[in-house]
Amino acid sequence: MQFSGRDAVRPRRQRRFHPAQVIFGAFTAATLAGTGLLLLPFAKVDPGSATWVESLFTAVSALAVTGHVIVDTATYWTPFGQVVILVLIQLGGLGVMTFASFVGLVVVRRLSFRSRLNAATETKSVGLDEVRGLVLGVVKVSLLIEAIVASIFALRFAFTYGYAPGEAIWLGVFHGISSFNNAGFALFSDSMMGFVSDPVISLTLCASVILGGLGFPVILELRKRFRRPLLWSMNTRLVLVFTASLLVLGTAFITALEWNNPATLGDLAWPDRILAGFFQSVQTRTAGFNSVDISQLGGATLLGMDVLMFIGGGPAGTAGGIKVTTFGVLLFILIAEMRGDGVVNIFGKRLSRAVHRQAIAVVLASVALVIGSTIAMMIISGLDLDRVLFEAISAFGTVGLSTGITASLPVPAQLILVMLMFLGRLGPITFATALALRPRSILYQLPKERPIIG
User: Fold this and answer.
1) Regions in the chain scoring below 50 on pLDDT
2) Residue 233 included in any domain
3) Domain count across the chain
4) pLDDT value at residue 434
5) Handedness of CA 117, 123, 126, 127 (dihedral sign)
6) What is the pLDDT of residue 225?
7) pLDDT of residue 150
8) In this predicted model, what pLDDT tens digit does every residue of 16-73 receive, in sequence order?
9) CA 14 to CA 62: how far, in whole Å?
10) Is the separation of the CB atoms in 324 and 246 below 8 Å?
């Protein structure tokens, strides 16, 4: 067969995947690998293998750093299964693409353009040239914080609670990694309820969760410019201001509403009530550990916690939710609109109009996903709104808190939670972009018109 000259020189078109598609594929591959490992007979304590739903649910929950469980992590999985869960948590916390880029950097001492582009998408980095240093910085900071937290936990478990050295070290490492990655997995059947009055365990855990929830860009910027706040970026200022504000408001809200509830805070001494209220405010943002029985919280408390879980933590980190930056941007847009300002100014800088659309798109997509999933789960399970909504937002926000209904939900409802955790980690916009073949450019503009609003 012969080809004409034109056909002979025509370049062969190669399919180029968008970085978001690569990240989506990597998360899917890691999920399947984790599920397969948890299906092995020696990953489960009792004879036989775990069911595919138990394995899939646990793998997605670990990779999405959520902490939702339908089986008890401490008693159901063997040490091998727990190690698999811990590896998935670390992968999910650092980001599959960031972790892969780090491995490639160590092995070949260089990154291809495509690898740098993928890592830039995962870490929300602005410049591709920054990715090499960013990836190394992310890994170094993560391992350092996890090592410090693990050491504190190990010493506390060994000298205060009498655990053997080997077991204390394992508990310290597991909870150090789980807390910094905001995963919420615990090796105690009641999570952290046994340490509700222990300030060392509670405050160390909270500090680890808060640092992980700030996001890597904020941590790395603070490391460089901690003493020069005037040089902090708008992102860093938004994250710090709204993180602190929501932690204080959340602590006051939960503590006040549960102060006299004997099933939660009511039977504790007043300093322990404040400690438990603060602990739960921190965990509600994205981590999922609990030092009180979530199923015994009042309806108003659950609804307030829904709001905190939906907002989540900082972007490009281990936190979930729509992110505090999205919430902050919408709040400043509202303030500017109420004042009649033509532009939105935040901390002395003008906000890009493209960010307006991005924030609105993220919130609307997230609300639609949560509401649709909640309705479907209510129909499937027949349960009431407050608990089902709490589970749905907890899964989407990759929080992992539960009112105790997760394990008893029908399998279709549990699979909806799997979808919410998966999409909550990747983000609705990233997921939509991953499915798109390519962006569509519009070369024309339609006439303007203003509908009546309100």
Assistant:
1) 1, 3-9, 107-109, 435-437
2) yes
3) 1
4) 54
5) negative
6) 87
7) 97
8) 666 667 778 888 999 999 999 999 999 999 999 999 999 999 999 999 999 999 999 9
9) 35
10) yes
Say which amino acid occupies 216.
F
Structure tokens at 421: 């955790």
**Residues near 268 by Cβ (< 8 Å), separated by ≥ 6?**
196, 197, 276
Both tokens assigned to 202: 């509670």
Handedness of CA 308, 310, 376, 52 (dihedral sign): negative
For residue 44, being part of any structural domain is answered with yes
The verdict on residue 452 lying in a domain is no
Domain containing 117 equals: 19-435
- Look at residue 118 in the predicted model and tell me its pLDDT: 59
Specify if 355 maps to a domain.
yes
Which residues are bridge partners to 346 per DSSP? 349
Residue 419 burial (CB count, 10 A): 14
Q: What is the pLDDT of residue 108?
A: 46
- 176, 143 Cβ separation under 8 angstroms: no
Q: What is the dihedral of CA 406, 411, 412, 417, to 10 degrees?
A: 30
Task: Give residue 344's identity as a one-letter amino acid code.
Answer: V
For residue 99, the model assigns a pLDDT of: 59
CA terminus-to-terminus distance, the chain:
68
Report d(CA 234, CA 419) in Å as an integer: 32
SS (H, E, C) the chain: CCCCHHHHHCCCCCCCCCHHHHHHHHHHHHHHHHHHHHCCHHHECCCCCCCHHHHHHHHHHHHCCCCCCCCCHHHHECHHHHHHHHHHHHHHHHCHHHHHHHHHHHHHCCCCHHHHHHHHHHHCCCCHHHHHHHHHHHHHHHHHHHHHHHHHHHHHHHHCCCCCHHHHHHHHHHHHHHHHCCCCCCCCCCCCHHHCCCHHHHHHHHHHHHHHHHCHHHHHHHHHHCCCHHHCCHHHHHHHHHHHHHHHHHHHHHHHHHCCCCCCCCCCCHHHHHHHHHHHHHHHHHHCCCCCCHHHCCHHHHHHHHHHHHHCCCCCCCCCCCCHHHHHHHHHHHHHHHHCCCCCEECCEECCHHHHHHHHHHHHHHHHHHHHHHHHHHHHHCCCHHHHHHHHHHHHCCCCCCCCCCCCCCHHHHHHHHHHHHHHHHCHHHHHHHHCCCCCCCCCCCCCCCCCCC
pTM of the predicted structure, to 2 decimals: 0.87
Distance CA 221, CA 216 (A): 8
